[in-house]
Amino acid sequence: MYWVVALFDEETEQKVMDIWQELCDQSISYYVNKVKDGKPHLTLASYEQLDKETFISKLETYCEGKEEVALTFNTVGSFLNHDTVFLSPVITTDLLKLHGAYHQAFALYQEASNELYEPEQWIPHCTLANQPVTGNLSDVFGYCQKHVEPISGTIDRIAIIEKVGEENGKLVAPVIYTKRLSKSGVSNG
After folding, report:
1. Which of 41, 102, 151, 163 has its CA 20 to 30 A from that of 112?
2. Which helix (H) or strand (E) holds 140?
3. Inter-axis angle of helices 10-25 and 137-147, to 10 degrees?
4. CA distance linking residue 65 with residue 102, whole number of Å
5. How far apart are CA 77 and CA 34, in angstroms?
6. What angle do CA 41, 46, 50 make, to 5 degrees?
7. What is the pLDDT of residues 2-55, one digit of tens each?
8. CA–CA distance, 7 with 45 (Å, rounded to integer)
9. Distances (CA, A) of 27 to 10, 111, 133, 147, 169
10. Does residue 73 contact residue 188 with C-beta atoms inside 8 Å?
């Protein structure tokens, strides 16, 4: 399995990772320990199978000249019938353009794509916790309401994550490709 993801600037990434660690330290969620070398991200697309070399080459070309996108997280949410809590970004025109343009450029891969990430279905989110220790999502929400502040930053890279397997109970899903986006007049305010 492969995920095409939007990665965040270093400061934003660290703030999310700090929340993961705080939830672990409080014995609320061990999400921080579920994925080896996991990185906070927004998933743009997901595929069961890809020809890696061909896809990476196309993504490399596609990302040329693409600019960073401002990002603000100020909402905590959850999917119905799933034990997952996430940060939800403000849906901006630039964020929708990033997602929509990607899917337009990679329309040939749509048959292999997970429909949850397709335009008109996409719910951008950055996972904070899944399967809370107590089995109660309200513990995660309660912690976030008291301790998590809005986070502003940028999407500064597009990457591919590949699911390799499991190791010592952790999902092994390394970043196998990263392309930095061009600096722009992105404002975080």
Report:
1. 41
2. helix 137-147
3. 130
4. 13
5. 20
6. 125
7. 999 999 999 999 999 999 999 999 999 898 888 888 899 999 999 999 999 999
8. 13
9. 26, 40, 7, 15, 18
10. no
